[in-house]
């Protein structure tokens, strides 16, 4: 179904399904004997959502036909990609807190378990923002697991196209304190103007010493919805209700690195292959010509 200005979802529908998909990737990366990342909550969270396709995926029980035309190294490459992405943003928070930051905001937190698994320094406050049903479900699963956050966790269930800054401040956010912001796996699901507004707002709420991290897909400006639909067609044939072509906002949008730079941030962009090399992982084969996204650049920036 096409996106609308006020569409909503849970973790098994629309954009919410993508949160479960990436958590399934983290669950698989966590099981990898090479010890790429450690997210012990990804597996129970994905099981709790209960989408059959993803439960089978983490159990290694997906129909082999699904991957019949995909090279094995490409499948492993997708798991490794989740691992390097997770590690990049884990390291980002570790470095921000080592520099003294004690306030973090995880935008579009989905099934991100960092508030429960990172070794936050004492006194750190972590705000998580996502759609109400997403926040409520995840909190319920953690409560059911008897898991305690490793920071002071505050949740805000709101759409990021609405007035989330007011809701964030009402939840105790301190704009005078340096903040480490994260927008992981979010931007392509926001309309171009909402992406700009997001970074405008982040900038206006950021005290000196703040940091922001995200990932940027330069090829998104040429995103072909039909290619996105095709990309997820085999999974749909295997029962997954996911059509990437209908979820991504298309058309021109700001270049994240340039946009943040113009707002006064000192920005570093790290190409995906470099992260693989840093982690000692084989770089996955080149994206084929049909890839609707293309390369990913991991972005971190500081405001001084
Ligand atoms: C690919 S998932 C990423 C989740 C999480 N950041 C991670 O990497 O595991 C996309 C997330 O963006 C959230 N999202 C997308 N658009 C949103 C919006 N307008 N308001 C609130 N959340 C949104 C979805 O609910 C979903 O959790």
UniProtKB/TrEMBL annotation:
<dbReference type="InterPro" id="IPR029063">
    <property type="entry name" value="SAM-dependent_MTases_sf"/>
</dbReference>
<dbReference type="GO" id="GO:0032259">
    <property type="term" value="P:methylation"/>
</dbReference>
<dbReference type="InterPro" id="IPR007213">
    <property type="entry name" value="Ppm1/Ppm2/Tcmp"/>
</dbReference>
<dbReference type="InterPro" id="IPR011610">
    <property type="entry name" value="SAM_mthyl_Trfase_ML2640-like"/>
</dbReference>
<keyword id="KW-0808">Transferase</keyword>
<keyword id="KW-0489">Methyltransferase</keyword>
<dbReference type="GO" id="GO:0008168">
    <property type="term" value="F:methyltransferase activity"/>
</dbReference>
<dbReference type="Pfam" id="PF04072">
    <property type="entry name" value="LCM"/>
</dbReference>
<protein>
    <recommendedName>
        <fullName>S-adenosyl-L-methionine-dependent methyltransferase</fullName>
        <ecNumber>2.1.1.-</ecNumber>
    </recommendedName>
</protein>
<comment type="similarity">
    <text>Belongs to the UPF0677 family.</text>
</comment>
<keyword id="KW-0949">S-adenosyl-L-methionine</keyword>
<comment type="function">
    <text>Exhibits S-adenosyl-L-methionine-dependent methyltransferase activity.</text>
</comment>
């Amino acid at each position: 179904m096409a996106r609308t200005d006020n569409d909503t979802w849970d973790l098994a529908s629309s954009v919410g399904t993508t949160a479960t998909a990436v958590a399934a990737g983290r669950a698989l990366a966590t099981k990898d004997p090479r010890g790429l990342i450690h997210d012990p909550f990804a597996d129970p969270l994905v099981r709790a959502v209960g989408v059959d396709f993803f439960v089978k995926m983490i159990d290694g029980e997906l129909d082999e036909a699904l991957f019949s035309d995909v090279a094995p190294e490409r499948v492993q490459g997708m798991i490794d990609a989740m691992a390097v992405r997770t590690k990049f943003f884990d390291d980002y928070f570790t470095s921000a807190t080592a520099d003294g930051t004690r306030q973090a905001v995880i935008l579009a937190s989905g099934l991100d378990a960092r508030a429960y698994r990172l070794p936050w320094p004492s006194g750190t406050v972590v705000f998580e923002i996502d759609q109400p049903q997403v926040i409520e479900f995840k909190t319920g699963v953690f409560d059911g697991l008897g898991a305690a956050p490793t920071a002071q966790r505050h949740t805000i269930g709101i759409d990021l196209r609405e007035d989330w800054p007011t809701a964030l401040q009402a939840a105790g956010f301190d704009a005078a304190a340096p903040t480490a912001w994260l927008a992981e796996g979010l931007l392509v699901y926001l309309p171009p103007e909402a992406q700009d507004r997001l970074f405008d707002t982040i900038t206006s709420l950021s005290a000196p010493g703040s940091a922001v991290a995200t990932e940027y897909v330069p090829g998104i400006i040429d995103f072909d919805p039909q290619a996105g639909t095709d990309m997820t067609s085999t999974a749909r044939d295997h029962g997954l209700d996911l059509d990437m072509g209908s979820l991504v906002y298309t058309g021109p949008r700001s270049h994240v690195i340039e946009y943040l730079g113009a707002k006064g941030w000192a920005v570093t962009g790290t190409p995906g292959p470099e992260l693989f090399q840093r982690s000692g992982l084989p770089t996955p084969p080149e994206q084929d010509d049909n890839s609707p996204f293309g390369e990913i650049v991991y972005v971190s920036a500081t405001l001084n």
